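Reading a protein record of the kind used here takes only a little practice. Think of the row as the fold of the chain written in a discrete alphabet. A record is reproduced here so that you can trace the correspondence yourselves:
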Amino acid sequence: MTDTKSGASAKSTTASKTSAKSEPKLDSVEKFWETMEANHAMMLDAFTSARARSIRVNDALIDNMTAAQTDMLELAKTVACAPRDYRGNFSATLTKMTDAQARALEMFKFFLGEQAASRDKTMEVAKKMYQSNKEALSVGTDMMKSLSEGNPISESWMKTLEAFKEISDSAKAAA
């Protein structure tokens, strides 16, 4: 009976060593998910910023179109009320055209500013995401290494890949 008990305890010790090897380190798993959550927060911030920018652009367009319509209605009213006042009508037309050009220039400057802000924000987020993903890859790789250590399936797979590499190398050498 002692042999059976010692054999069973040896098997359970081996099994616990194998499972301890195949389980990832808790800190690497936590670090991986912390990195994923940080990436999520960055993307959420970027989307929120883009949404706010879109609202500002749409509001500016609507304000510009409203002002243009108001100007055209006022000009039409001026011309309709005094059709033979050529000097007044010409002056009103010139004033409204100048106002329209000023609005167009202001819109162009606004769009350039928003585009520059968008470019800067995109670059900032891209750099942060690149760095964060680099860290996540490193942590994920460490986590997967700890999972694959002592895993009989991954060991068998690695041996198969090594054999394929040897065959490939010998085929290249023969060619």
